[in-house]
Amino acid sequence: MKIKIFSHNDLDGYACSILTQLAAGRENVHADYCGYYNINEKIKEFIDNRSYEIYDYIFITDISITEEVAQIIENNSILKNMTILLDHHPTAIGLNKYEWCTVQIEDEIEKICGTSLLYNYLVDNNMLEKKVSIKIFVDTVKRYDTWLWKEKYNDLRAKHLNDLFKIYGQERFETEYYKRLTSDVFCMINDTDKFLLELENEKIQKYIDKKNKFIYKKTLIINGKKFRAGIVVADNYLSELGNELSERNPDLDFIAMIAGLSTVSYRTVKKDIDLGNEVAIYYGGGGHPQSAGSQISYELRKQILDSIIK
Could you give the CA distance from residue 159 to residue 157 in angstroms, rounded to a whole number? Predict the structure, then answer.
């Protein structure tokens, strides 16, 4: 069984790839990790080159595609029968009209993520064996990605797993946790991890304190609704930074974090704001009510750079 997976480039997205590797073997999985800025181009190129012919399954997980790309897949009977899209972002809900797409935000108990959707699919289709260690890993990823670790469970282990994802780096994390999940004894966080986490937490707090001093506050009118936004330039610790800055500055509706002149990440702790549908989608992005993102176009980046260097 050979699998091609297109997945989001965060913890949830990489965890999806780990699950496919557990199901088919690492040597039988080829993964592309994408952002919203390049997912559609990557899939169109994959289709145009007929690269799909060597695979048995194509998974698109924790990220959505445009209607145009979805229609290309729908019109190709071979692609349609081998593609499975699994996403949990509300802005992708319209893709449910396609039989090969499942966009589900929550189950009968709570919010879910791409990893939990994929786990259920693989287990239900007898592609992955049920194991306690895998289920623990899946639930931990879900708790972090949906922010249930803080809102419901007070589960610091979930936050620590995401911290380790950043500390180890994406590829090393993927290799390390595949190894742990295939070993006889599973350990989510070992003593070495705990030491690294302690050092990382000190760095995070210093980073947040520094960024809090340089928030640019701006009133935005989006589709007739007024928002008070806090804007910072930041490349690291976006979830921690955005949430803590939002808590420290209750006069702001949300925090917008500009990373590398390429992406903008939005965070809020306010329950009456839907960042995905009210803010990010306005700028061509998407996401959840309290966590969303969008891309900065090449044209806008060029304008910004031209204004800086004349």
Answer: 5
Give CA–CA dist 159/146, Å, rounded: 11
- The Cα–Cα gap between 11 and 166 comes to 9
Render 22-69 in DSSP notation, one character per residue: HHH-GGGEEEEEE-TTTHHHHHHHHHHTTGGGG-SEEEEES----HHH
Task: Report pTM.
Answer: 0.78
CA 249 remoteness from chain centre: 25
Q: Find the radius of gyration of the CA atoms of the chain.
A: 20
What amino acid occupies position 139? Answer: D
Q: Which amino acid, one-letter code, is at 269?
A: V
> Which tokens hold the place of 245?
């800055």
In the 8-state DSSP scheme, what is residue 85?
E
pLDDT digits (tens, 9 = 90+) for 155-207: 999 999 999 999 999 999 999 999 999 999 999 999 999 999 999 999 999 99
Interatomic CA distance for residues 168 and 155, integer angstroms: 21
Nearest alpha carbon to residue 197 among 139, 171, 141, 158: 158
Q: Cβ distance 280 to 287 under 8 Å? A: yes
Query: Collapsing DSSP states into helix, strand and coil, what is residue 3?
Result: strand
**Amino acid residing at 219:** T
Q: What is the DSSP string of 263-297?
A: EEEEE---TT--IIIIIGGGGT-EE-SSEEEEEPP
> Tokens 């966009």 belong to which residue?
103
* Pair of tokens at residue 294: 């969008």
